[in-house]
Amino acid sequence: MKIDFSKIMIEDIEGNEIAVDVSKDLGNMMYLNAQDIAVADLGREIYHKKEVELNEVQVKQIRPFVEKGFKAIVKRVLLPLLDKKD
Description:
Elements: E1 2-4, E2 8-11, E3 17-20, H1 23-33, H2 37-49, E4 51-53, H3 56-69, H4 72-83
Antiparallel strand pairs: 1-4, 2-3
Helix pairs in contact: 1-2, 3-4
């Protein structure tokens, strides 16, 4: 699956859709906190490329960082996006 982390569409309290860029936050979080080199490399790729092609393993690697590092407004969009099957 391909995800562009620079264009995540969230909904504000009034129901307006807003595009947010989570690529820097997610990529940096993964790179700095990863215990695995592949996860750190994936964080770097997300940080720099913003739009990345992810396999099933990588999706599972990203999920804990999203769950711990973002507020509910972003989780509401990102977690279902990560759960989607192509």
